Amino acid sequence: MQNDTIAAIATPPGVGGIGVVRVSGTDAFSLVAPLLRRPGKPQEVPPIPPSHMLIYRHIIDPTTQDVLDEVLVAFMHAPHSYTAEDVVEIQGHGGPLILKRILRSVLAQGARMANPGEFTLRAFLNGRMDLAQAEAVMDLIGAQTEAGQRLAMQQLRGRLSEQVQAARQATLGVIARIEASIDFPEDDVPTPQPEELRPLIALAQQQVDLLLAGSEQGRLYRQGLRTAIIGRPNVGKSSLLNALLRTERAIVTPVAGTTRDTVEEIANLRGIPLHLIDTAGITPTTDPVEQIGVERSRAAAESADVVLLVYDGSEPLTEQDRKVSSELQAMGFGEYITLDASANDAYQHRRPVVVVVNKADRPLRLEVAEIGAAWPQATFVKTSTLTGEGLATLEEAIADLVLAGKVLSNESVLVTNVRHQEALRQAAEHLQASVISLEQGLPLDFVSIDLRAAYDALGEVTGETASEDLLDKIFSEFCIGK
C-alpha cells in the first residue's frame, strides 16, 4: 500500500558514528513529531521546523518516555524528498541497539516496516525517477571502482533514459504515421510508402544499436571480469594472484598443492572490477580433499570470462600441463569473438586465454613453440612474481582483450544492466522484423505490430511498460531502507 507510512533503518548494519532511520508517507510528520523533545524540556513537544532544516532534539520511547538518544532530525515536505512524499530522517548514534529502539518507537506510533527497496519504489511510482534511474541507485551503492560509480551516476542522472526515450519517440513517430492512415481513411490521410518509412525506422535502429554497442563493455564495468588463474600445481598461480593484488592474500610455499580450494579477490583494472580466482592445480589425485579442490578449479574455469593459463617457464612441459591445456580447449576457451558492434557476433561473449610463462627470472626451459601451436590466438606474457617483470604487461593484455582499446570517458553512457541489454535486443529484433515486413510488401498492420512491440520493449527499460511482477522482482533485490 502506497498510502501508508513506512520506516526503516537506512544505514548498513553494524556499529558506526551515526545511523539514520528514514520515515516516508502521509503521516510521517505526525508520527515522528510527538517523539521529539528539546533538551531540558521533557514535557514540551516542539513544533515541526521548516522543511529541510536539520535540528537537534532528544528522541523518546513513547511508552516509557525515556530518552533514547540525542538526534539530528530533518523534516522534508513533499515533493522535495527522496520518495517525493513527506519524509523524516532521524540521525542518531550508529549503534544497532539504539537504531532499533528508535525504529521501534516510530513503528509503535503507527508506521509500517518498509519492504526491501520500498523507498526507491515509491520514488519511481511518484514519478521522481524512472525505472532505469531507480536501478542505478543500487548500482551506485554497489560500485566497486570509480568507473563503475561514474556509469551508475550517469544513469541516475537520466542520461541512459534520455537515449532510450529518443529511440522510443523515433519508433512512436513511425507508428503514428502508419496508424493514422489506417484509422482515418475517410480523412484522406495518405498511406505512407515503404521508402518513407525505412529512414524513420533506421533512425530508431541506429539509436538502439548505439546503446547495444557498448553493452558488453558496460556489463564488465558493472559486474566485473571473472578471471581464473589455471595451471598445474606449483607453477606460481598463488604468487601471481598476490602480485596482481599487491598483497599477500594466498598462501605460497615451495610445496606443490598448497592451494586446495579457490581463493577469490577483486582488483581494479582500468576501472573494471577484476575478480581474480586462484585455483588448486588441476591434477589427478586420490586425496578426497584435493579432488574437491580440482573440481572447484574446473568450475571456476567454466564460469570465467578470461583464463590466465600459467606455465612454469623454468621447467619443460609436463603431461599435466598438456592435460590442463586440453581441458580448457574442451571448454571452448581460445575462441576469439569480437565485441565490435558492426560484426555479426556483436553481442556474443568471448572466452579468451592469456598464456602466462611464469618464473621469467630463471633460465627458460619451456617449449614455448608447442604452447603457441596449441593456443595460436592467445596472448603470451612472460612474468616473474619475484622481480615483478611482466606484471604491468599482463594487466595491459587483459585490459586490451576486454576493452579493445576503448577508453571510458567522463561522459560515456553505457548499458550496464543485463535486463536493459535484453530489452534493447528485443527492440532491435522487432525493428528489424518491421523492416523485413516492409520489404516483403506486407500490409502496414503487420509493420505496426512489430514497431509497437519494439516501443514496448524500450519502455521496459524506463519502466513505462514494466509489469507489476517485474517491479516486485527488481525492488526485492534492494536493501531495506533504500
Automatic annotation (TrEMBL):
Tagged with keyword Transferase: no
Binding residues for K(+): N234, T253, V255, T258
Binding site for GTP: 234-239, 253-259, 278-281, 358-361
Cofactor(s) the protein needs: K(+)
Official protein name in the record: tRNA modification GTPase MnmE
Domain of life (superkingdom): Bacteria
Residues at which (6S)-5-formyl-5,6,7,8-tetrahydrofolate binds: R22, E89, R128, K482
Lineage: Bacteria, Bacillati, Chloroflexota, Ktedonobacteria, Ktedonobacterales
Species: Reticulibacter mediterranei
Subcellular location: Cytoplasm
Gene: mnmE
GO MF entries: GTP binding; GTPase activity; identical protein binding; metal ion binding
